[in-house]
Please model this.
Amino acid sequence: MRDALGWRKKFGVLGPSTNTIVQVDFDDLRVPGVTNHYSRIFTPNSRAVSNETFMAGTTKISEGVIDAVRSVMTCEPDYLVMGMSAVTFYDGVKGADAFQAKVENEAKVKISIGSHSCTAALKAYGVKSLSFMSPYYPVANAEVRRYFTESGFNVVRDIPMQAPSWTGIAEITTAQCRETIKKLDGPDVEAIVQVGTNLSMIRLAAAAEMYLNKPVIAINTATYWHALRANGITDKIYGFGRLLEEF
Model:
């Protein structure tokens, strides 16, 4: 017997309790027969995030991941989707693999994480050079750069937008993101990547792909695309960029 609404797949989604974007984004990307079941990682809303505190803060959030896994597994999801991206880049490819293994060992089901999903998306497009943007601080951008470099990509430049709080990430405007994309673009860049799941970018990234004529990958789009494809769901979803339409 299958779930009445999630008759194709039930996805458990893990995200910080301060994140107000990823749940909505993933629901917008959902296809018939797939349901999303959000499990919140308890996260005090730090209102004084800085370069010195960002890494410690996100690492503290990651310590609550297993509790969120245990909670969401009570609805017996078929697969997990990670709705927090920073910690999936820490300590390079080795760290990403270790994080994924930790969750999968607890859940006994597979998970799509942001870092590896972005790599899969970039490989689908066949690009080698990129620039990226984040709501993070320079210390965390250095970890993202390390991850992409270890994954075989040339990182040309990056911009940390330095949100002042965890909820402040979701308050970064489309206009600010659009100006950041302009600064990242150039003839030396084949693709632009946005990381940070609480930053609203799935629609802007799709629009930017059209006017820049190159891949612009929003991490929420990439992660949900990866989860769908990993489960053999090949539906084409229109309005959110080439990744969901062509690959």
